[in-house]
Amino acid sequence: MYADLHIHSHFSDGILSPKEILDEVISTSLESIAITDHDNIQGSIEAQKINRRNDYDLEIIPGIEFSCLENRQDFHIIGLFIDYDSPYLNETIDVMQKKRIDSIKKIVKFLNQKNINISFKDILSLAKGSVGRPHVALDLINKRYANNVNEAFDKYLSNKILFNIREPRMNVSKAIITIKKSGGIPIWAHPNIKDINFEKNLQEFIVMGLAGIEVASPRYGLNRQEIIINVCSKYNLLLSGGSDFHGFHKGIDISSDYGIKHKEFIDIKKYLNIKK
Ligand SMILES: [Zn+2]
Ligand SMILES: [Zn+2]
Hints:
The protein has 2 domains: 196 residues, TIM Barrel; 62 residues, Orthogonal Bundle (DNA polymerase, domain 1), CATH 1.10.150. 45% of the residues lie in helices and 16% in strands. Bound molecules: zinc ion (2 copies).
């Protein structure tokens, strides 16, 4: 594969630094990647700097991932080729970062009331960019309430336990508009094509300005890929994709397997040029 356009660094909920990610990437056949942290562009910016400074000779595509809520369903929208300096993008990121902090404070308060003595300050010190539940999990592990991240989520941090405390999400239209106003290409990440409303949602998102779908993701089997490819040609959408790598702990590699081919990558770049 040519490009992996969905990777997380330690600036959101990934484990590796941008430098460690680039060191992994150069041992693969990949020529291009996008670091697409949740509500955060620090990792993407850092990867570009390291790439230039150390002559990795990769193409780093600016990226971000937004969590969305629409019709009471969760969706993830990725922005590729966004302008890091866009005021509109940075304003949206600031709002989401504040909401993330509020949500973590609520989780700390909720667990403190159950005599789980974690602290917001300690959690924040574990986060490099976007603070989230994985950082609460680390604090729970540090304070011996759990042995590992999975146990911390099962015992304290699942949606069922935290009920109405959710990580912040925005409308899909807000995500798409933010990405487009920042010069980027909005992509629907890992869509659930088994959802009965899949095509109806897709049509709505296209009206909002959606440009593509992730065809390659470790979450689909190969038969699903074929369906997505057909849907993309029906609606004239771009094919994107990537590993959604967060670290090796999830058994997923930054690899050649879940990226996109050169032709699909070229189509994305052509779209960008037409748009300009
Ligand atoms: Zn996602
Ligand atoms: Zn992701």
